[in-house]
Amino acid sequence: MHNQISTTNSEVVTIHQIIRNVNTDNLNEDIIVFDHGVQFQINDVYPLRIDSLMIALCTEGSGKIGIDLREYELKKNSLIVIQPKNYIYLSQYSEDFKGSVMACSKHLVQDVLPKLTDILPLLIHHRTEPVTNLTDEEAEGIKTFLSFIRSKLRGPRTHFLKQKVHCMLQAALYEMMDINHKNSQHIESTKSRKEEIMAKFILAVSENFRNERQVSYYAHKLFITPKHLSSVVKELSGRTAGDWIENYVIMEAKVLLKTTDMTIQEIAVALNFPNQSFFGKYFKHHTDYSPTAYRRKFS
User: Fold this and answer.
1) 118 and 146 part of one domain
2) Shared domain check, 151 and 106
3) Quick one: which of 34, 85, 149, 264 is 20 to 30 A from 289 by CA?
4) Residue range 208-216: average pLDDT?
5) What does the angle CA 19 – CA 54 – CA 94 come to, to the nearest 5 degrees?
6) Phi, psi torsion values for 36, nearest 5 degrees
7) Who wins on pLDDT, 185 or 135?
8) Which domain range does residue 278 map to?
9) Last residue of a domain, one of 132, 157, 190
10) Residues 11 and 112 occupy one common structural domain
11) What is the pLDDT at residue 229?
C-alpha cells in the first residue's frame, strides 16, 4: 500500500512532514530512510518544493516526475536526486511503484558537505540531471548503503551513532561519485557543446532568477552572445531562454503565495520587482490570475 503525504495545506515538503505521515527510521529528524511506495497527493499541476536533500532509488514499477520544469520517466533502477529548493510540479506512479528513499535535512547537508568538497561536481551534475538510470549492479550498491544506514537508525542510540551515520552518508555519496565517474567518459564523449550550454544555463537560472531576468546576463556568464544562447536553448528545449527564466520566477511566486504569509509587496521585493503593481501585472500575464486571486484559490 502507498503511504500518502498530503500537500494540500503546504507545498513545501519537509522531513518533519514526511515523518508525520510515513513510518520512517530517523535520527533527530536530520536523516530518514524508508522503503515504501510514496505518492504525493497533488490536487493540481502547480509546484511544490522539497526542503531537503532526497536520494531515491526506484526498485519496482514506473512513473513520471517533473523536476524544475523538466519531466522524467522513472523505472526500475532509476536514481532520483532532489536537492533543497528543487521544484516538483508533477508526479505519477504506477500502483506497484516502490522505492528506497533517504532524505537529509539542510542542516545535516551543511554539516556533512563541507568535509566533502570533492562531491560538489556530483551535486552540480544531479542539479541538471536529477534522474539517472543505473545498472542492476549499480542500483544494488546504492540500495545496500541505504539499507545499512536504515539498520543503524533502527538500532540502539549509541554514543557515536551520529558520527557513524554521517560517515555512512558520505560513503553513499562516494558510491554515487564512483558511478558518475565510471560513466563520465561516455557522457563527455556524447555530450555536445550545445548540451553543455543548455545545462549551464539551467543551473545559472536556478541560482539567479530572483535577481536577474535578462537573457543577456546569463549569456555574459556563459561567455557567449545572447543570440547564440537563445538559439541553443530554443533548439534543444523548444522554449526560449526568456521562457525558462520567466517560468522559474512564476514557480517561485506561486510557492511563496501558497505556502507563506508574505504580503504581495514582500514577494515583489523578494523577486526583485520594482513595485507591487509591476509584479501583479507580470504574474497575471503569465497565469491569468492576480496574486491575490491565486492565493485565495490555491492556498
Assistant:
1) yes
2) yes
3) 85
4) 93
5) 80
6) -150, 170
7) 135
8) 193-298
9) 190
10) yes
11) 95
94: left (phi over 0), alpha (psi -120 to 50) or beta: beta
Q: Are residues 147 and 12 in the same domain?
A: yes
Question: Tell me, what CATH number does 281's domain have?
Answer: 1.10.10.60
d(CA 191, CA 209) in angstroms, rounded, equals: 26
**Residue after which a domain boundary falls, among 139, 166, 190:** 190
203 shares a domain with 180 = no
The full 3-state SS of the chain, as one line of letters, equals: CCEEEECCCCCEECHHHHHHHCCCEEECCCEEEEEECEEEECCCCCCEEECEEEEEEEEECCEEEEECCEEEEECCCEEEEECCCCEEEEEEECCCCEEEEEEEEHHHHHHHHHHHHHHHHHHHHHHHCCEEECCHHHHHHHHHHHHHHHHHHHCCCCCCHHHHHHHHHHHHHHHHHHHHHHHHHHHHHHCCHHHHHHHHHHHHHHHHCCCCCCHHHHHHHCCCCHHHHHHHHHHHHCCCHHHHHHHHHHHHHHHHHHHCCCCHHHHHHHCCCCCHHHHHHHHHHHHCCCHHHHHHHHC
Which one-letter amino acid corresponds to residue 21? Answer: N
Amino acid at site 232: V
In our burial notation (b when 16+ CB lie closer than 10 A, e otherwise), range 62-96 reads ebebbbbbeebebebbbbbbbbebbbbbbbebeee
Same domain, 160 and 56: yes
Q: Are residues 151 and 198 in the same domain?
A: no
Do 125 and 212 belong to one domain?
no
What pLDDT was estimated at residue 251? 84
